[in-house]
Amino acid sequence: MGFDGRSLTYGELADAAGAVARRVRRGDRVAVWATPELETVVAVVGILLAGAAAVPLNPKSGEKELAHIVSDSAPSLILAAPGAQLPSSLGDLERVDVDVDARADFPHPELPDDAPALVVYTSGTTGPPKGAVLPRRALTSTLDALADAWQWTEADVLVHGLPLFHVHGLVLGVLGPLRRGGSVRHLGRFSTQGVARALADGATMLFGVPTMYHRIAETLPGDPELAKALGGARLLVSGSAALPVHDHERIAAATGRRVIERYGMTETLMNTSVRADGEARAGTVGVPLPGVELRLVEEDGSEIGAYDGETVGEIQVRGPNLFTEYLNRPDATAAAFTTDGWFRTGDMAVREPDGYVRIVGRKATDLIKSGGYKIGAGEIENALLEHPGVREAAVTGEPDADLGERIVAWIVPADPETPPGVAELADHVARRLAPHKRPRVVRLLDVLPRNDMGKIMKRALTPADTDTDA
What we know:
By secondary structure, this protein is of the alpha/beta class. Among the domains are: about 1-110, Rossmann fold (3-Layer(aba) Sandwich), CATH 3.40.50; about 365-470, GMP Synthetase, Chain A, domain 3. Helices cover about 30% and strands about 25% of the residues. The protein contains 12 helices and 26 strands. The strands form 6 sheets. The chain has a 9-stranded mixed β-sheet, with helices on both faces.
């Protein structure tokens, strides 16, 4: 296991984690200042070894959010790298500095599958973040299902530069290699040069988010060494948000390798994935993973039986990969599940005739009801990104007296001096999709608002003083 030039063997990690476990009480919740360093990995492994639950904290979070998380989760300790500067909102917690050179044995306790392993706070859109309690079975079932889907073995060497306060970077990107018995090389900070070096030096898998793959796609034309390194990888995986089809195609054309996508959430870990031995079909997230039940439902809760690639429904899932509760929020927990145990994801999708899932957006922000049609923002965004005058794109709906909702395109133009007009973009989308999916309004931006995982924050998109209307 390597982090930015520092490394630990499995034996060294076990010993350092054992020293942490001796400071932790079984059943406690323990906060971790989740910087992208070896200390974070040692802390989390030590907490799990002790039979406690880790609460990873985003070092970029504001004081108010951190104060809420600490008040809500009531951790007994906070673990951090020596020298890390913690904000005042964490000042009342007992601090333990993690020593990666410490050596101590700790017996592995027998723990029930439903014992909490992580409490991961979801980003709040209409209120403060909620703590999703992930049991140990959720971690093991997801990682074993991904091993099956991706043919992931101890021979694989994973490279990534993902943050460690989220399930993508921590569960998949660190605990995944540990469960397989393989290696992980964390870049510390993502860069295309770092990716190229690691893959050229023997790494076999790359995990990233769409922002990272977009930077790779932009860099590839002038970087033959990057193209060669990516071409030699066994698996390129993108997650946390949809990877635009345009970037899929640019990477495939330059490297001969196709990026595969998977679909998950904090509350569910991983639900679906394109399989390593399946078709890497751009714009889809593959098929349900082993052990995961998935269905699409109408607004009234009735199941959609048609796999026609057109009928949009909300994804609901059921399986051992699910969280057990929102901490201290029985009302929110109850509202998240149906009476027969299906989790309401809030994600909208269609299913292809062969079972592949294609996500079209979030129910709250990406489902647009216009002129009697249910339209997913994601496919319009992909179409817009195929226009040479569009660098970035987001699509939302807003009230319209005639249509119910009209489609609004938020565009970062490739050339701010000569941005494409609404008629040009509307015609472009209508030719690729259907006339009723064309944008009626275009709003120009310098940059799209994104969170730490690269997801576009659509709730931050507010109407400008001047619009371009169809």
